[in-house]
Write a structure and sequence with these properties.
With about 120 residues, the protein is mostly helical. It is built from 3 helices and 2 strands, in the order αβαβα. The relative contact order is 0.12. InterPro entries: Resolv_N, Resolvase-like_N_sf.
């Protein structure tokens, strides 16, 4: 979160923030809308370089009301929810795998580093 704050503090009016995918910028529905509001307020454009958003201006506002366009808001919220679901499922599957490994007697984590003993050559049978 602090990286996002630093980025938003560094950006100046007329700048464009480029990111590879939306999920690199935000963690949830409420957060993306807050970020979009700050970008709009500070006159900073946002370009996300993935298939879903590459042609869409995510800071676009209605000319009369100044509110975020309904279609942009819907798209952003839907994809943010899908990203949140994906992260939650990944976390659940990771914990399930760790519990299953623990039940078999294994423990999670990195395997010990290889020792520096010279390897024995295998003899052909």
């Amino acid at each position: 979160m602090s990286h996002i704050r630093a980025l938003l503090g560094y950006a100046r009016p007329g700048d464009t923030v480029h990111i590879s995918e939306m999920f690199r910028l935000v963690r949830g529905n409420g957060h993306i809308l807050d970020v979009l509001d700050v970008l709009h307020r500070d006159q900073v454009a946002l370009r996300i370089h993935d298939d879903a958003f590459s042609a869409m201006d995510l800071t676009a506002r209605h000319p009369r009301t100044g509110e975020l366009l309904s279609t942009v808001k819907f798209m952003v919220q839907t994809l943010a929810a899908a990203g949140e679901l994906q992260r939650d499922l990944q976390r659940e599957l990771t914990y399930d795998g760790l519990r299953a490994a623990e039940a078999k007697g294994s423990k999670g984590g990195r395997r010990p580093a290889a020792t520096r003993r010279p390897a024995r050559r295998r003899q052909a049978l």
